[in-house]
Specification:
- Keywords: DNA-binding, Sigma factor, Transcription, Transcription regulation.
- This is Sigma-70 family RNA polymerase sigma factor.
- By secondary structure, the chain is mainly α.
- About 75% of the residues lie in helices and about 0% in strands.
- The longest helix has 23 residues, at about 165-189.
Length: about 190
């Protein structure tokens, strides 16, 4: 099967017939015939979003694998348009998952440096001060800061766990971080 060369002009009626045939029989060669008509479009989308040709070719194959199950699950009116969106979303998800999230030490991020114990660990005094300051934060800030820094959850996980909007979570973390910094600076004086 040559996924990178378009062989004929697509026809929506043929697409619907092939899609229905695949849904009824589960025959992968029928789905392959349908996919082959649009593989050059899928490849073009992948080239647009992904960093190199090899990644784009791998994505074309992976999208076909996704298509095996998703073609049965979704109500597809226009296969070509639906496949384009599926391909674009797949590529965007690949880009998102490829991004490396650097973990940042809470102290570095908050731009304050508590006096460290000689053995480079926080003293019990500093830990207690941080706990006291955390307890002084308003509920939403405390919860968001705790989940983001201590439980190492991402914004999306926090929004799902708390019901707060993404902007609220970002705001609670930013304000909580600022309030912690102020509180800890007061305690160190």
């Amino acid at each position: 099967m040559n996924f990178f060369k378009r062989t004929n002009k697509p026809d929506d009626a043929d697409d619907t017939a092939l899609l229905n045939s695949y849904r009824g029989s589960g025959n992968l060669s029928v789905l392959g015939s349908l996919y082959e008509k649009y593989a050059s479009i899928v490849y073009g989308v992948c080239l647009k979003y992904l960093p190199n040709e090899d990644a784009a070719k791998d994505a074309v194959m992976a999208i076909f694998e996704e298509l095996i199950t998703k073609a049965k699950q979704h109500d597809i009116k226009q296969f070509r348009s639906w496949l384009y969106v599926l391909s674009r979303n797949y590529c965007l998800m690949q880009l998102r998952s490829a991004k490396k999230v650097d973990t940042v030490n809470l102290d570095d991020f908050m731009e304050f440096t508590p006096v460290l114990h000689p053995d480079n660990e926080y003293s019990e005094e500093h830990i207690k001060a941080l706990e006291r300051c955390m307890d002084k934060l308003p509920g939403a800030q405390k919860e968001s800061v705790n989940q983001f820094y201590l439980q190492q959850k991402c914004y999306k996980e926090i929004t799902e766990a708390t019901g707060y909007t993404l902007n609220e979570v970002k705001s609670y973390i930013q304000n909580g971080k600022r309030n912690l910094k102020i509180c800890l600076e007061k305690n160190s004086e």
